[in-house]
């Protein structure tokens, strides 16, 4: 039997294997961060903890789907950067708010959220590598117009 041309028109290519592994690494970092946040700051304790829980849920549920879709990978990178910035600012604020002054270098390294922020910042190069893997051709030539 002859297959219809319409089925191949709207089918997206399978994501590269490297992209799948990078998205899995991003998912594991996101899920670990979300579970750690829920353990340290239970949502029922304060309504102020909801924003970070929401960002963690976006990272765990929405971003993997967007990263693996060729048209959604750009938006996923923007959301990834936004959630990393929000998490970094939030953790730095709470760390500075709870820190005992005068602070030493040892206090800043071991008793602040600096290690957590560094782990969160690891999601930025992962997102960039996913983008480069899913869109390896770079920007469009000057003469090409439109959405394709």
From TrEMBL:
Which keywords does this Swiss-Prot/TrEMBL entry list? Membrane, Transmembrane, Transmembrane helix
Which residue ranges run through the membrane? 18-36, 48-68, 75-95, 101-122
Keyword Transmembrane listed:
yes
Q: What is this protein called?
A: Uncharacterized protein
The organism is Megalodesulfovibrio gigas (strain ATCC 19364 / DSM 1382 / NCIMB 9332 / VKM B-1759) (Desulfovibrio gigas)
